Amino acid sequence: MTSEEQPKAEHRSRPTSAEFRDFVATGWSPRASEPTPRSEVADVTAPRREAVSAEFTGERLVIPAGGLKVRSNDCDYVFRPHTAFAWLSGLGADREPDAVLVLDPLAEGGHETTLFFRPLAPRDSEEFFADSRYGEFWVGARPTIADVESELGVRARHIDELKDVLAKDAGQVQLRVVRDADAAVTALVDEVRQEAGVTESQTEADEALSRSLSTRRMVKDDWEVGELRKAVAATHHGFEGVIADLPEAVRRGRGERWVEGVFGLYARHEGNGVGYDSICASGDHANTLHWIKNTGDIRDGDLILVDAGVEVDSLFTADVTRTLPVSGRFSEPQRRVYEAVLAAQEAGLAAVKPGNRFKDVHAAAIRVIAEHLHGWGLLPDGVTVEQTLDAEHGQYHRRWMVHGTSHHLGMDVHDCQLALREDYMDAELVPGMVLTVEPGLYFKADDELVPDDLRGIGVRIEDDVLVTRDGHENLSGDMPRTVEDVERWMAHVQERGRP
Ligand SMILES: [Mn+2]
């Protein structure tokens, strides 16, 4: 409802004459008479809202999109709607700053959904030419109320009507708001509650709504899996773009940035953008788990770890990691580490099947990691594999893989983060869940416990995996993973050029 305020620069204000106002308001072709056609996603969001409606019978639910955030002065960051809002409304990409979705309880049961937003202003308004944030001259024509109603299949209203709707019978109707989406809407809901005489804290009730909207996204329907497939396909192209440009990245210096840029090019061209900041980590940088500075050179003979994913307009994102030999060929020590990680990933993948628990995937992968570390003599003297895997007293192996093996994947790269432990880590895998399987081994250049030839090698292999009725499907399985396949892939792509 309320984007961050931009400071006004007085020296940039221009006098506006009555003559100019009249002149700028006229002489334009009539606007399109047909509203935006109904979108495919309108059919997908209706059952989502019905399920939420059934859980929160008789309650008023408020799900804000969030507002624009100032980057500096009068420049904002590109807008990204809150995921709960996008999932329930069907609006993705950069839509619709300051909008609020309200599920209003009906007397006869169920809810009516209304999207409150800032519709297109008429041409005789000040906004039309003067408002650099919302005005048609500055950001293009925004949708009208009729556009939104037609496109999304819900009722739409001007955002200015929101407060009255929230205040209506607020004392009798339980109100819940997704609190972290828009501070101003949360404050408005709290104010309405106070005016209605609700004195006890409603934070827990609000959090239960947020948790429900997060947990409900865990099992993907066919349409959602289709969006993830698109995201993975675009990500595959992005990786091939990176491989094709690797020699150029080496030649130019600061090659990690070149790789980030090339992947970003594919992400913006084929999708909405990157689903998270790309990790482009060459040599020892691969041992910094979230290396997103990407300032380094890429040197022949090193590995480069690229952890990147394209997000499509619906906001579903891929999350894939490949660790590539810059020269096109793994050295013997690189291959040794790589094949250990690959074996761990295979063990993790094999554990992705209905009936297994989410945490079983990590357990399977980390055991293989521990076995290799033990076999290489890296664990402290006398420590067995079973001893290091002991959660209470061991865990030595975690020095070289400190992260988990999996997370749910969807509209958020780390999806369903508000789910309870029993619904996430401890939950059984069921068909439709999508998770990553991403073990790694990280031998820092200054790790004195590691033999010389392994120092500075960091490897992670990450795929996006759909749980099916009889096991799993690796959605990113078309992207080569074995040593031989990766080497062949690189040679092929560099021979052929950019996809
Ligand atoms: Mn991941």
From TrEMBL:
Its cofactor is Mn(2+). InterPro entries: Aminopep_P_N, Creatin/AminoP/Spt16_N, Creatinase/aminopeptidase-like, Pept_M24, Peptidase_M24B_aminopep-P_CS, X-Pro_dipept-like. Residues 1-46 are annotated as: Disordered. Residues 40-186 form the Aminopeptidase P N-terminal domain. One of its GO terms (molecular function) is manganese ion binding. One of its GO terms (biological process) is proteolysis. Belongs to the peptidase M24B family. Keywords: Hydrolase, Manganese, Metal-binding. Its EC number is 3.4.11.9. It comes from the Bacteria. It catalyses: Release of any N-terminal amino acid, including proline, that is linked to proline, even from a dipeptide or tripeptide. The keyword Phosphoprotein does not apply. Residues 1-13 have a biased composition (Basic and acidic residues). The keyword Cell inner membrane does not apply. CDD domains: Prolidase (cd01087). SMART domains: AMP_N. This is Xaa-Pro aminopeptidase. GO terms for cellular component: cytosol.
